[in-house]
Write a structure and sequence with these properties.
By secondary structure, the chain is α/β, with parallel strands linked by helices. The protein has 13 helices and 18 strands. The longest helix has 17 residues. This is Imidazolonepropionase.
Length: 411
Amino acid sequence: MSTRPVLFTDANLIDPEAGTARPGSWLLVRDGLIADHGTGTAPGADADVIDLAGASLLPGLVDAHVHVTALSADLGSVSDRAPSYVAAYAARALSDMLRRGFTTVRDVGGGDHGLADAMADGLFVGPRLIFGGKALSQTGGHGDFRPRGRHVHDDHACCPGAAIVCDGPVAFRKAAREQLRTGAHHVKIMLSGGVASPTDRIDSVQSADDEIRAVVEEAEAANRYVTGHAYTARAVNRGLRLGVRCIEHGNLIDESSLDLFREHDAYLVPTLVTYQELARQGARNGLPRESQDKVDTVLTRGLDALRMAHEAGVNLVFGTDLLGGMQAHQNEEFAIRAQVQPAPAVLRSATVTAARLLGLEGRIGTVRPGAHADLIVVDGDPLQDVTVLACPEENLRLVMAQGIVRHGQVG
């Protein structure tokens, strides 16, 4: 594809940081970066010109909770597949995410340095992949996918899978170091029970204090951070007090949790669309019976938790957590959040705030000059109605990743 400069003209330029829309704007892309933008007459430039005819131009979207290797809702079944098969599946899943407008994704269990390197080397086209390797789980925890009757657990580092089982601070510390050794951008630890694990309760508390501290110490030593899977206020609060910087899900938090999020300037990544889809089609996508019974527990409380967190000023980040064939519903998270949040807040969660969590502030999720030219073009104004992002097949006209138009037409 052409790497010539690109000049967008007659754009409704959306700035999520400022919360502004500027009709009649131009934006110049050069060498994979945003070079400049303004209103009125565009500068003369030796560039491919894309006349947007008033459509909205905005930063590419960020999904901060994906599982690119999750070819089924039965997460344990991934380890039964050959690594080559799982890699091929992940390549397609990532390509589809880019086509839906997500130019950066954070994998929180399964995605690894091999996939990130393959994408960086151009072996396939997809979004920027921020990976953590395998999540860390205690025996019988959310990352232990053995059915009750199976007693042997194989934790071969080269085998595909979302998690590794370890017990005791020494084992957790070593597992954290192993993930960081591969270049992981974060380390994930299981702090409570979950939906997709067969033998734990949603309201269980997992990982001992000294195990959590060991992982936090290793992440901080490597200038990285820990994110924690947790649903209940008890599990969330414990993690935040022990130095966990980000919480995944948090459907069952309460007022005490909100105080701790603010105190520690921590982040919350709700993933509401996954419960909608697990309720609708989890069974036919491989979700085990014992996991299906857990869905209602978290489904009914998720929106209330999101509303509480938004009103309290918690750092909220966009995430979806969809598995297998349900990943096609990724953008519907925008419509769900719009039920309790104003459009600018939802858009910031998928751009500016997500970039800050990932340590990429000013480089993604923004239209600042010097930022990566990760951009999308949509019909409609997402600052007024963010649900236009929920229907990419209808409203998404163009996707640019690092200065190259990957989907849509040039000129």
